[in-house]
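User: My collaborator sent over this chain with a note saying "see what the structure looks like." That's all I know about it. Can you take a look?
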Amino acid sequence: MIASYLQKLRMFSRDARLFLFTFALWGGFFGIHGVLFNLYLLRLGYGPEFVGWVNGLGRLTFGLSSLPAGALGGRLGNRRAIIVGMCLGVAGFGLLPLAELIPVALRQGWVLTTFLLGWLGGALYVVNCNPFLMGATTAEERNHVFSVRAALIPLVGFAGSLVGGLLPGLFARAFGISPDQAASYRYPLFLAAALLIPGVPILWATHEVATEEEQKRVTNVGAAPYGLIALLALVILLQSTGAEVPFLNIYLDADLHVPTSLIGVLMAVGQALAVPSILVVPLLIERWGQFRTVLVGTIGMALSLLPLALVPHWGAASLGYVGATALGRIVTPTFTVYTQEIVPPRSRALMSGAATMASGVSASAMALGGGYIITALGFPSLFLTAAGLAATGALVFWSCFRVPRGAHVRSTVIEGQLAS
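Assistant: Without extra context I'll predict from the sequence alone. Here is the result:
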């Protein structure tokens, strides 16, 4: 089994390998940025409401720009769109930490503008990477490629989160300032954005890919299945609330009074422990199939959020975070391949855009509403809300997709007719 797994890894194409390296760079960025950005805003004097608005509008921009990002990828080519997205990410997230140097009257506008620019780049990158990878892989190694891609974020994010928690103290000592000052967080955020820069020349070295063989194999499929795409997007909208623990670092910092260095360690450990679960995704799919893997994983995500809501202790928070993160990393690549295969090849960019939009809108709603829920009802209510929505997503998925449907069913019929 292990030998077969390793053999599939060696089958990855050059373009897939280069792309995966750039995805690892995003993992390092989010590892550092995820630990420090909200805390940076707190050190600038903003409260949970503004933090929620910034994160919510960023994710909303990510979501609403996803469909145009897919259309742009269809026009420019997925590879070129990914490169443009990488450049915008570097520009937006690189300029953001200058907020402390901007006049107070303009500071909020600067934070929002640069943050939204970074997320716009992220949308271009993420939406177009799915059809790009579908074209750069064959069915034989595709589940493994998407599994490795999903593993890179927590694997590299582990190092980023661990280092990110230590960096404010290191910069504070280096510059002789207090670790509670915003400047101690500014320099690590610059460093995080700089990690993305090598991704531009690496992506430039790839080639535009196509799925001509699959286009020939699946014929007479009619117009784009808009109803199917909308239904899948609804499932993702609900399901995504359990894939990440909203406001975790603020909960640990403001409510449980956990030191920043320990927050970094906890988030790093959660990312690291998610890696083994991701790498067994192809094995789970072989045993259970995509449908059952997604369904069980989504239910598990909802249950993982309950310790955060019911037990006010950093240990329970860590347990819930690890569970939700690990299961989310299993569900995401499995469902991505599922949604890409269930629609005709020419509709994959549209499906990817709709899926990314649903995920972004979900995260935006949790961020925008989360700040107000925390202020009015406390953190437990937020975690219970996320768990309930994720469980609803599992119910919708089970009720609508327990009977196989989509382009992959038609492909099987066509291939069987050709074989006979």
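A starting point for your reply to your collaborator: The longest helix spans residues 139-175.
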